[in-house]
Amino acid sequence: MSAKKQNNQGKSGQRAALFLAGVGVFWILATWIGGALGLSLRVLALFDLIALAGFGWALWMTYGIWRARQNDEG
């Protein structure tokens, strides 16, 4: 594998990891702040759905990275 492809895959992995960590922090803060402010369960459920979509997107990103590595090996 060339160094450029390996570097691009490394950056893609870092981007996915940072995105996943950001979604996790968002979810924790949204739940904590929403509970402290007394937001309705409907609004908290909206934050949960947003976080679920973010986690799904992160899973899709990691699947794409995995597929790219599989294609490069064989």
What do you see in this structure?
- The protein has 74 residues and is mainly α.
- It has a domain at 19-69.
- It contains 2 helices and no strands.
- The chain has helices spanning 3-37, 41-73.
- Helix 1 runs antiparallel to helix 2 (41-73).
- The longest helix is centred in the N-terminal third of the chain and has 35 residues, at 3-37.
- The chain is elongated and about 55 Å long.
Brief sketch in words of this structure:
Helices cover 92% and strands 0% of the residues. The chain has 74 residues and is an all-alpha fold. It starts with a helix and ends with a helix.
Helix and strand topology:
Layout: H1 3-37, H2 41-73
Helix pairs in contact: 1-2
Mean pLDDT: 91
> How many strands, what sense, and barrel or not for the largest sheet?
none
Number of helices: 2
Q: Write down the oligomeric state.
A: single chain
Cα distance spanning the termini: 11 Å
SSE pattern, N- to C-terminal: HH
* Number of DSSP strand runs: 0
Instruction: Estimate the helix proportion, in percent.
Output: over 70%
**Main structural class:** mainly alpha
Q: Gyration radius, to the nearest Å?
A: 17 Å
Uncertain stretches: none
β-strand percent reads under 5%
What is the approximate shape?
elongated
List its traits.
single chain, 74 residues, mainly alpha, 2 helices, 92% helix, 0% strand, elongated
